[in-house]
């Protein structure tokens, strides 16, 4: 920075410190929210709490500059701010200590590597490193809001490139450009704003992507309900028709029995028994949402000419997050139906069991032997429209992780087998259905 004018320099250093310290406390909020989840107060109270912590910490540094007091004015407000969240006491204490320890270690590392006179530069570099840590943790830690957001090399490239480039620009300006202090302050502010805006826009795009995916799942669920209603209406019509024709059937049976025509009687009874076969209703476990989705997807496979088999052992009134389970079931059955499309020998089997606190799902289908994979070995859709289908098995894994479950995929000859296991919150009595 330029050293012209002690008073002006002090003012600019103060402004630089306040700017970067505000960025630090913004990052503390992101990390506390990530670790502790839902807050117990509204947004205005939360904002007031963080503003008070920022002002207290800044005043202690600017007025006194005592290291021990600076440490206390950072750690104690963090501990108090953790009380704003609905989390156990030990989790609040642990989160505040971990966040402060990470920030302290980054500060120490930066100031050990840089000369003493580069204090403003070190503050910004430390804040940007903490920002990188927050971005990494936000993608690694499970979150219902982000569990189905698109993820890939581009995000990690941006995480490394944008803050790192900002650090490089600040260092180059400080050591080589010899720009005025006010210009350095302006550049610092613009770089902080740029980093925040880029990743805020990425988060908004991710939320929009997630909303589209959720809308597709809900539309699929509505179609499943409509299919279920159609099946029941069809069954009701068949039952009314059977009741209407029952007198005629009994008369025909009575006539054949009187004629002692055993062959004709047997043939008539076989035809009559076919009329009594239920409509294509594979799932009837007492869980309407799951049953309707399974019946809808298996009906698609049947219309595609597949031989379908389903085995269900489920507790009635199964208590599970509906959207999450629909994501798991819907994606695995979608993959199976897609695999059947190009296969001459179409077979699909579904098994869903719940026992001893665990739920196990197995979907097996034949396919034509051709699979597309990306450079990381993940299976890819062969559909022309890939904007939403590309999530595939990855979205299933993310949904399962929220239930402490996992997914295993294997190929046996020309059979694709996907098995998912997750924990159940309750252990009600199961219903055994095989079709």
From TrEMBL:
Sensor histidine kinase NatK-like C-terminal domain residues: 323-418
Keyword match Transmembrane helix: yes
Gene3D superfamilies to which the protein is assigned, alphabetical: Histidine kinase-like ATPase, C-terminal domain
Classification via InterPro entries: HATPase_C_sf (IPR036890), NatK-like_C (IPR032834)
TM helices/strands, residue ranges: 48-81, 93-114, 120-138, 154-176, 182-202
PANTHER family to which the protein is assigned, alphabetical: TWO-COMPONENT SENSOR HISTIDINE KINASE
Protein name: Sensor histidine kinase NatK-like C-terminal domain-containing protein
């Amino acid at each position: 920075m330029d050293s012209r004018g002690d008073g002006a320099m002090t003012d600019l250093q103060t402004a630089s410190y306040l700017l970067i310290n505000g960025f630090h406390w913004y990052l503390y909020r992101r990390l506390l929210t990530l670790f502790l989840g839902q807050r117990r107060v509204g947004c205005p109270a939360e904002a007031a709490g963080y503003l008070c912590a920022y002002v207290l910490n800044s005043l202690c540094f600017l007025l006194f500059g005592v290291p021990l007091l600076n440490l206390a004015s950072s750690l104690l407000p963090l501990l108090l701010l953790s009380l704003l969240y609905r989390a156990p006491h030990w989790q609040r204490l642990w989160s505040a200590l971990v966040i402060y320890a990470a920030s302290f270690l980054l500060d120490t590392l930066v100031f050990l590597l840089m000369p003493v006179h580069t204090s403003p530069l070190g503050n910004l570099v430390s804040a940007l490193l903490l920002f990188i840590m927050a971005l990494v943790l936000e993608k690694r830690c499970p979150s219902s809001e982000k569990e189905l957001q698109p993820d890939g090399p581009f995000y990690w490239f941006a995480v490394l490139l944008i803050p790192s480039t900002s650090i490089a620009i600040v260092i180059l300006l400080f050591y080589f450009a010899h720009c005025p202090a006010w210009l350095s302050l302006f550049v610092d502010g613009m770089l902080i704003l740029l980093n925040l805006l880029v990743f805020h826009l990425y988060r908004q795009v991710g939320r929009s992507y997630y909303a589209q995916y959720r809308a597709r799942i809900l539309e699929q669920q509505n179609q499943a309900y409509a299919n279920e209603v159609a099946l029941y209406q069809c069954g009701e019509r068949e039952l009314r028709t059977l009741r209407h024709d029952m007198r005629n059937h009994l008369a025909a049976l009575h006539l054949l029995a009187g004629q002692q025509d055993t062959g004709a009687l047997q043939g008539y009874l076989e035809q009559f028994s076919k009329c009594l076969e239920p409509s294509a209703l594979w799932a009837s476990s007492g869980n309407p949402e799951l049953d309707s989705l399974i019946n809808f997807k298996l009906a698609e496979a049947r219309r595609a000419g597949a031989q379908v088999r389903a085995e269900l052992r489920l507790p009635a009134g199964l208590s599970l997050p509906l959207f999450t389970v629909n994501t798991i079931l819907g994606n695995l059955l979608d993959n199976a139906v897609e695999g059947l499309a190009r296969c001459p020998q179409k077979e699909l089997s579904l098994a869903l069991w719940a026992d001893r606190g665990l739920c196990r799902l197995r979907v097996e289908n034949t396919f034509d032997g051709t699979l597309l994979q990306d450079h990381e070995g993940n299976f890819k859709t062969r559909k022309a429209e890939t904007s939403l289908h590309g999530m595939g098995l990855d979205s299933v894994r993310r949904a399962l992780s929220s239930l402490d479950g996992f997914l295993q995929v294997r190929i046996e000859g020309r059979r694709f087998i996907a098995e998912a296991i997750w924990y159940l919150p309750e252990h009600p009595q199961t219903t055994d259905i095989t079709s």
